[in-house]
Design a protein that fits this description.
There is one protein chain. The chain contains five helices and four strands, in the order H-H-E-E-E-E-H-H-H. It has about 170 residues and is mainly alpha-helical. The strands form two sheets. The chain has a two-stranded parallel ribbon with strand order 1-4. A two-stranded antiparallel sheet has the order 2-3. InterPro entries: DinB-like (IPR024775), DinB/YfiT-like (IPR034660). It comes from Kribbella ginsengisoli.
Length: about 170
């Protein structure tokens, strides 16, 4: 049963990644920090040049529209956290996850995370063990649930990036 579920998760991940890669291959440097609305979350260099993401610990209404740069930072943060949990390692603190600062480095980061996750998917032997992220232990979710969540979250973020890319291209046409 584990190998059947593992195959479904792997195939779902590969499909999700292919759709994400479609948009990654078409990004331009100008796409990353394009702000599609007045209320926007983005990434900005701090006083020493580290790129940090806008963030609020309280619920915002309305929710700021993210830039592609912010979305790629967000992917890097949650995926690094999910990978750490899957390996039994300590996840990075949100504030320690920095955006790379340009298109080439961002694409490299996204693809390195993909490779890392592919290895985790290949190496997992017990999809029934309790997941630690993104749910609390009392949720009683399994590692299979966690891996399915990664696929879903990546698909959502890929669609958001794709939509922003298309909106900017239409605006610029």
């Amino acid at each position: 049963m584990t190998s059947d579920i593992q195959n479904v998760l792997r195939n779902q991940f590969e499909l999700t990644w292919a759709l994400f890669e479609y948009h990654l291959e078409r990004l331009t440097p100008d796409d990353l920090l394009w702000e599609p609305a007045k209320l926007c979350w983005t990434v900005r260099p701090d006083s020493i040049g580290n790129w940090r993401a806008d963030w609020s610990d309280s619920a915002l209404d309305p929710i700021p529209v993210p830039t592609i740069g912010w979305l790629t930072w967000h992917i890097g943060w949650w995926w690094s956290t999910a990978a750490a949990h899957a390996r039994g390692a300590v996840p990075p603190d949100r504030t320690a996850v920095l955006w790379p600062g340009d298109l080439a480095k961002t694409l490299g980061w996204m693809r390195a995370l993909r490779d890392q996750w592919s290895h985790i998917l290949e190496d997992i032997t017990d999809l029934t063990r309790p997941a630690v992220f993104p749910w609390p232990p009392e949720a009683r979710r399994s590692t299979a649930d966690q891996f399915a969540w990664v696929n879903t979250e990546l698909m959502k973020n890929a669609a958001e990036i794709g939509q922003l890319r298309l909106l900017k291209a239409a605006r610029d046409a």
